[in-house]
Write a structure and sequence with these properties.
The protein has 178 residues and is α+β, with helices and mostly antiparallel strands. The protein contains 5 helices and 7 strands; from the N terminus they run E-H-E-E-H-H-H-E-E-E-H-E. Keywords: Mitochondrion, Transit peptide.
């Protein structure tokens, strides 16, 4: 369950075919997050939770659905279940982009799942986006799968100059807070 966090702006990256560190929401569109004021309490903001569907749309989901494997319901569902601390993941993501002015996460989008990872697109209050990947328990030894993916992405970006999202934080320690 170690997280891998990348800054991510898929739409811009695909259009420009170059790495983009952050995407900022224009002030005129901030009003779309007004429902979050109802979700605030003294300690944190509960983000909107949604999942990407096969037709490209998204729908609101419960927190429990973030942990379940939902793509192919017949494939080792119990072994792919990954319970993690959502608030700790959000805290790690906000900390990683706080220098850009992010204070809290407004939306968690569960991306379509692959066979070995759970992927989430976390949108911050300032429009920054962080892509978080957590390996499923079935993926293999968490340390090696995480470290291998980080090393591969760094090699692609740094040595081969292939535009890939920049890794801003990662941990292969099974005892981390997430």
């Amino acid at each position: 369950m170690p997280p891998k966090l990348w800054t991510y702006s898929l739409r811009r990256w695909l259009l420009a075919n170059r790495p983009i560190a952050y995407q900022h929401t224009p002030p005129s569109t901030v009003a779309t997050f007004t429902t979050l004021t109802e979700r605030q309490n003294a300690n944190h903001v509960m983000p909107i939770l949604s999942a990407e569907r096969s037709n490209g749309t998204s729908e609101d989901i419960s927190e429990e659905e973030l942990y379940r494997y939902t793509r192919n319901r017949w494939m080792h569902m119990s072994e792919r279940y990954l319970k993690f601390d959502l608030q700790e993941l959000l805290k790690a993501a906000v900390t990683s982009v706080s220098s850009e002015g992010a204070r809290y996460c407004t939306r968690v989008l569960k991306c379509r799942e692959g066979l070995n990872n759970k992927a989430y697109l976390l949108t911050m209050d300032n429009g920054s986006e962080v892509f978080a990947k957590l390996p499923s328990p079935i993926a293999g030894p968490a340390y090696y799968t995480t470290a291998s993916e980080v090393a591969t992405r760094e090699f692609l970006r740094g040595v081969l100059n292939i535009p890939t999202p920049r890794i801003i934080a990662w941990s292969a320690d099974r005892n981390n807070n997430v």
